[in-house]
Amino acid sequence: MNKVRKFDLKALAASAVLFAILQGLMTAEVIGPFWELNLILICMNVILASSLNMINGFTGQFSIGHAGFLAVGAYVGAVMTVKLGFSFPLAIVAGTVAAGFLGFLIGLPTLRLDGDYLAIATLGLGEIIRICILNIEYIGGASGLMGIPRMTNFTITFWLMIAVLFFIKNFKNSAHGRACLAIRENEIAADTMGIDTTKYKVMAFTLGASFAGTAGVLFSHYFFIAHPASFTFMRSFDILTMVVLGGLGSLTGSITGAILLTFISAALADFPEWRMIIYSLAMIILMLYRPQGLFGNKELSEKVFNSLKGGKSHE
Amino acid sequence: METGLLPVFRKTLIYGICNEGFYLKFYKRKGEDKMKFWKKASRIALAAMLVAGLTAGCGGGGGEKKAADAGKEIVVGVNAELTGNVANYGKSMLSGFELAVEEANKAGGIDGKKIKVVTADNKSEPSESGNAATKLVTQNKAIAVIGPATSGCVAAEEPVLTANKIPLIAPCATAPGITLQKDGKTKPFVFRACFIDPYQGDIMAQFAAKDLKVKKVAILHDSSSDYSKGLAEVFTKVFTANGGQITTDEAFLSKDVDFKASLTKIKATSPEAIYVPGYYEEVSKIIKQAREIGLTCPMLGSDGWDSPKLVEVAGKEACNKGYFTNAYTAEDKDPAVQKFVKAYQGKFNKVPDVFAMQGYNAGLILFNAIKTAKTTDGTKLADAIAKTKDLQVANGKLTYDEKHNPITTALVLELKDGKMTLNKKIGG
Amino acid sequence: MESGFLHQFVQQLINGISLGSIYALIALGYTMIYGILKLINFAHGDIYMLGAYIGFVCTSILKLSFLPALIVSMIGAALAGMVIERVAYRPMRNAPRIAILITAIGVSFFLENVMILFASPQPRTFPAVFTATVYHVGAWVVNSQQIVILISALVLMVALTYIVNQTRAGKAMRAVSFDADAARLMGIDIDSTISMTFALGSALAAAGGVLVGIYYNSIDPLMGMVPGIKAFVAAVLGGIGIIPGAMLGGIILGVVEALVSGFISSTFRDAAAFAILIIILLFKPQGLMGKNIREKV
């Protein structure tokens, strides 16, 4: 227990240092606005990827409708600040709760499906959410919700990301997380062992959806607009790719996947015509050479830190 | 034991790319201690990060150098939909603008300075559009940005440009709100080179009621496009105010290919005309299918119809009794129009559509403003654009009103045997 | 005036069946590939697009007539399908299924964007290789092309069922689909069987692409994206891996879409299609014609 806390403190300190360095570089304008934007985008994508990893990686439920929850968060948050005049933190909470609640409602019936059937159902649900948004005039319909103030900045995004990551890490290591892992490994066996599989599947799904909602609020308050075109199934695929590329079930993998893909996309911005081609090729090649993702389902940190301490026992 | 930067770096790479088993197989047996390996690896990672940081810093310096070079050339950014759902519109717009740039550079540039185009792709998606605009302004130091083609993407990039005081000309963003702030004031840096939705919708509704003398019109609009939705709304308002009746208002989504279900429903309401505001990609299929199921009434539309593809896909006969509002026609005998159409055909080997024309116009507007302002300073440039008056563009003379909307001619064109013929000219 | 409810209902049914037969045409290939590899081949819709483009080149540039163009495009797409399988899927035979799925998405992005770059995103006008005749049956309207598409889908479905159930290659396919390892032990060449399935599935998609190109008169690089997803929905609806199921799913999906846009609202057409899928899955998780497979403990 002590050890866990020590590790947490260390990780917290490391992220504080990282934050200080990045913030310093930004203030010194070594990192220009373009890369600052992409850093924020990376943070959002890390939240999205790690939250999807809770569903797909830890619990083994194949969901590809994450963009729908992102959209719910984005719109609920924007309605809170723009239409109802609430403050930004409240909007974040509202977006998170709304997406989580929707995740719960959707998860309860659909998580009875498995494998590809669940995949296509979640894909469909993501599209249904988007089509509904297209048809609600109150939130702008097809034109999108414009005039959202930019309230998201690097500090908020970074620390929210850290908070989400800590939550997910602790969840994974908790009894609930172990139950989820058991479901992933063998659902029938888990069921036989007395694990309430439905409960844990819905729990992971709800939590994953709510974090996507958090990212959504940040998203719409950074790009000034919430527009249905931002939340198509292409975005769901993007997030899924980050998760799988990093390694299903590996939190550090999701972080790396999100950083890597966002970075590739940004670095290729100078070759607009070729960008998507190179991006797709990179996707194929990385998968061909690392089908289990960069980290498999292992975490990078444990190994590194343990090795640094001289490979002491893992307890 | 191996020492030195390179071997250890190689190992880091191998470890990063491959799994632990591989590492153990190849290095552990050489007696390399795992702990030491990681210590080295972490040191190298740190060093690599520092190097990367330094390079990034130098990169930043390089950017400033580029800015200094700007004395010789003028960098204009184009934020366009090059991939994704509406890539064909973005690409058309870009090619129109490229034609304007080529002509300007052939004529010796502006005050001896060549124009350099930097493009960025927004994947037809608003958030990417903000990203692309940031890149154009901060990395490429563009003095002005042209595009994107769709209103949603423009709305997302506009705050970035306004914050950096960089003028933006949106060639084909028709939503009225694009150039206006919340309080109704005009945004100082945002301009467009096309009609706004209410203008066109109004003209077509008047035309339907007064010239075609129809009483019952059905609407089929694209519910995923604010352009189409906006036009449908205005049309409904003006047409009913003129004593007409809207029999039904049906919707489709962009990229749809089968409209027979909606058309069958429309047919059952027996309208005297159908208003289909939208882009040619869908409209051409709508016209074709409408004629197939036996709807013979006039079809009315908007400037999104303007493309040779419309007649090609729908067929010449099907297009008869088609009327749409537009800013120009490629078959206009006016020398300015013909000059543009010929030049465009010469460069791209196809007849320009409305996006290409508006992209071209945006270029002319911008270059004219740079000439009159004699500077590339954003604020002064925006002032100069706002003062554009009687500028000869591809489709006539262009003047900006106080809301940064161009006052141009509006035409109602009729499709006859595949040709666009002028039916009525309004304003100008 | 025959604008009664029944009249409209029948006309919408006709519209729906014609739309559905297009989905079915794509879904047939989808379901075959899924059946053998358990892979959601997201690139299938793009193969359909590729087929349409090959057909376009054949008819408009090489000036071939309809049948040769169709055959060339089917062969071309079959080759493309085999190459994609060889390069992108075969090395991943033992990888987690989700990894292959990502590769499939990558291939789909790749095909779309290569076409955007080299063929421009502009839609192309498909030459009218045979003219459409419009038949008025009573008060209802049917287009000869709609009939051609429906018949092609039916013929291909029957042919496929025959191939899969009666021929040697088909037996090999079923064996591989049932248990790949056992099939290998029985002396079946798994690689060539899978390759063959891809060729067949891709050729079907290409046929669909050419027919749709002729029917709608226009093709573009993203034309496969939405039909690809819809066809997958159709395949799942009918019970994925089952050939008549794909046909049934396609028709049902088309009819649902037509009826929803005809009698409710066209804006919610796609939402309704997905909603029906989810509802059906909740009550019959294996799809309409799927067999209930008992979970193994």
Overview of this protein structure:
The complex is a heterotrimer of chains A (315), B (428) and C (297). With 315 residues, chain A is mostly helical. Chain A has helices at 2-27, 33-58, 66-83, 88-110, 115-134, 154-173, 175-185, 187-192, 197-220, 233-246, 251-267, 275-289, 300-308. Residues 310-315 of chain A have low confidence and may be disordered. Chain B starts with a helix and ends with a strand. The model of chain B is unreliable at 12-32 and 53-69 (pLDDT under 50). With 297 residues, chain C is mainly alpha-helical. Chain C has 11 helices and 4 strands. Chain C has helices at residues 5-37, 44-61, 66-89, 97-119, 144-166, 168-178, 180-185, 190-216, 225-238, 243-264, 269-283, and strands at 124-125, 134-137, 140-143, 218-219. Chain C has a two-stranded antiparallel sheet with strand order 1-4. Chain C is globular and about 60 Å long. Chains in contact: A-B, A-C, B-C. At the A-B interface, α2, α12 and α13 of A face α3, β2, α5, α6 and α8 of B. Chain C: GO terms for molecular function: L-isoleucine transmembrane transporter activity; L-leucine transmembrane transporter activity; L-phenylalanine transmembrane transporter activity; L-valine transmembrane transporter activity.
Write the layout of secondary structure elements.
The complex is a heterotrimer of chains A (315), B (428) and C (297).
Chain A lengths: L1 H26 L5 H26 L7 H18 L4 H23 L4 H20 L19 H20 L1 H11 L1 H6 L4 H24 L12 H14 L4 H17 L7 H15 L10 H9 L7
Helix pairs in contact in A: 1-6, 2-6, 2-9, 2-10, 2-11, 3-4, 3-5, 3-9, 4-9, 6-7, 7-9, 10-11
Chain B lengths: L4 H13 L2 H8 L6 H36 L3 E8 L6 H20 L7 E8 L4 H14 L4 E3 L4 H14 L3 E3 L19 E3 L4 H15 L4 E7 L3 H16 L3 E8 L7 H9 L4 E3 L4 H13 L6 E3 L6 H7 L1 H4 L2 E5 L8 H14 L5 H20 L4 H9 L4 E3 L2 E5 L5 E2 L2 E7 L2 E8 L2
Parallel strand pairs in B: 1-2, 1-3, 3-4, 4-5, 6-7, 6-8, 8-9, 9-10
Antiparallel strand pairs in B: 10-14, 11-12, 12-13, 14-15
Helix pairs in contact in B: 1-3, 4-14, 5-6, 7-8, 10-11, 14-15
Chain C lengths: L4 H33 L6 H18 L4 H24 L7 H23 L4 E2 L8 E4 L2 E4 H23 L1 H11 L1 H6 L4 H27 L1 E2 L5 H14 L4 H22 L4 H15 L14
Antiparallel strand pairs in C: 1-4, 2-3
Helix pairs in contact in C: 1-5, 1-8, 1-9, 1-10, 2-3, 2-4, 2-8, 2-9, 3-8, 5-6, 5-8, 6-8, 9-10, 9-11, 10-11
